[in-house]
Amino acid sequence: MRWAHLLWAELARRPLRTGLTLTAVGAAFALLGLLGSLTEALRTAGQGERAAHRLVTVPQVLGGALPLALDGRLAAMPGVERVTYNHFFFGSWQRADQGVGGFAVPSSWFTVFRGYHMPPQQWRAFETTRSGLLTGASMAHRYGWRIGEQIPIRASTFLQRNGSPVWIFTLCGIYRTRRRDRENTLFLHWSDFEAARAQGRGTVGAYFEQIRDPRAAARIALAIDALSRNSGHPTRTRSFSAEAAHYVAQIFDVSFIVRGVGTAVLLTLLLVIGNGMAYSVRERAGEFGLLKALSFRNRQLVGLVVAEAAVLCAVGGVGGLAVAAVAQEWVLRYFWHHFGVPTGAVGDIVWLEGLALMGVLVGAVSVCPAWQVLRLRSVGVPITR
Known about the structure:
By secondary structure, the chain is α+β, with helices and mostly antiparallel strands. The protein is 53% helix and 17% strand. The chain has 13 helices and eleven strands. The protein has helices at residues 2-12, 15-43, 70-75, 109-112, 120-128, 137-143, 190-196, 217-227, 240-251, 254-283, 285-293, 298-339, 349-375, and strands at residues 54-59, 66-67, 80-92, 99-105, 132-136, 150-155, 166-175, 186-189, 203-204, 206-211, 235-239. The strands form two sheets. It has a six-stranded mixed barrel. The chain has a two-stranded antiparallel ribbon with strand order 2-9. Helix 2 (15-43) runs antiparallel to helix 10, helix 2 packs across helix 12 (298-339) and helix 12 runs antiparallel to helix 13. The longest helix is centred in the last third of the chain and has 42 residues, at 298-339. Mean pLDDT is 79; it is low at 381-385.
């Protein structure tokens, strides 16, 4: 009980120093948590039970396109159950900083990629409405879109045949998915997109094959690439998760960024907390000496120092990770909108890594202050009669 009282008294009598230290630790762990969330989401992009049954066929040349006529040949490949395709469509709504993105897709898209949930009447409206548009609930909420509303989008990728960059769509449906960060994608009719665009007609951005047996994925991928080996549009076919990882690696080296920033943050924390703890022990040298004279053992005093470091790291670290958990959805949505980066599931791995890091940090910043305490001599206590 007296041990806890001493700890609380030390933290409470220096509220400014304690508050600044907790803020620094919280900010550092919030940054580490966000970077960890992004890394984990990118690592798991395209993974899952269904992803094992999907292949992706893209042009070998970055920014190239594949002929639409390849669709039938892919569907006839042994081991392939279904084939679909898409093309990126990026633009902005009302202002240049309100970027939106999605895909022009055929109806077969929603038989290969399931998990988009809408009322039946909205599906029917999308199928029968020319220039129909689907969007996720998160995007519709952010921009205040309503069913039946006309949505003008200034495209940054495709002009219309009349030369206008402004495409006007009718919002037919607002879908929901199991994860809110997946509700920020537009879908437009392939047939209307194909008829209206000025360039690239008769081509697609990528093909997606649903296969029966994931164990035959490598053989099927080689057979698909062999179809276009000697043509003007050679292909590269990979598993869904492998292609997602390759796409992310083309944009930036996430691991290098995370390692660099994480190392800088940890070194800064070691300096801030370690220096503060060492200064605090020097400042209280007389108090520790008095405690030794009052029969406090060395292990108790070292435990007091370690407990102080643990409180600072745990309270600040858990607070920072909680902030990261709240903000991670916004970060993942930002990377999807501005970079087209696919994201996966974050899970609990970020919390586990953060807690482990707190333990390492407590041990590292406690070494020097604990050694200072062990070297202190007891202070004599005058006896009053």
